[in-house]
C-alpha cells in the first residue's frame, strides 16, 4: 500500500499524525522541549527562553530554572510536527487543573499553562488551562489511588497529593540489619514504590525504562557540595555498587 503523502492542508490540526507524532497548529506561542520539533510548515521561529522576545511571558509562565536550558518558545503561523524517538505521544487538556509529570516526558505546552518545579525531583507541575504533550514508552495507563507504582514506570499524577516512598519488608530488614550489599544493590519496583493516597488520577507507562534526564543529574550534583569527605566517600561506595549491579544486567 502506498504511503499517505501529507501537506499543510492534510496534516491534522492539534492532533496525532500517528501514535508517534503530533501536529500543532501554531496560532499562539508554545513552549517546546529542545529536539522535539521534527518538521514544520509555515513561518515559525524557535527561540531559547533567555533570547526570546516574549521574556515577560516566559518569566510569568515558566518557573523552573533547572530545566530552562532545555526549552524553547515556538511562535509564528504554521504546522509543527513533534516527535520523541518513536515513543507514543499523547495530548492532554487541563481545565483549571493541576498535574505533575516526569520532566523527561513533557514535550510541549500552551502558554495558558504555568510550569513550576515539583517538590519531587525529576518532575514538573503544570497549573491552569490549556493543552500539553507528553511521550510514553508504551500506552499510558490511568488509575485511581490508593495505589503503589514502580518509580521507573510512573509518568505523573493529577489532583492528588505528592507520593511518599514505600519500601518493602525485605528491604527494610536488610537496612536495619546493616546488610549493605542488599540495601545498595539493584532497587527494583518490587523493593521501592511511590505510594499514592487520597483522590485524583495516576498516570504510568507500560514499561520500567525511563528517559534519561540531564537536569535531574545536575540537581543531584548540586546537592553534594555540603556532604564533606565522609559523605562523599559514602556516596562513592554507593555509586560503585550501583554501577556494578547495573553492569550485571
UniProtKB/TrEMBL annotation:
InterPro entries: AIM24, AIM24_sf, Trp_RNA-bd_attenuator-like_dom. The lineage of its organism: Bacteria, Bacillati, Actinomycetota, Actinomycetes, Motilibacterales. It comes from Motilibacter deserti. This is AIM24 family protein. Transmembrane segments: none annotated. It comes from the Bacteria.
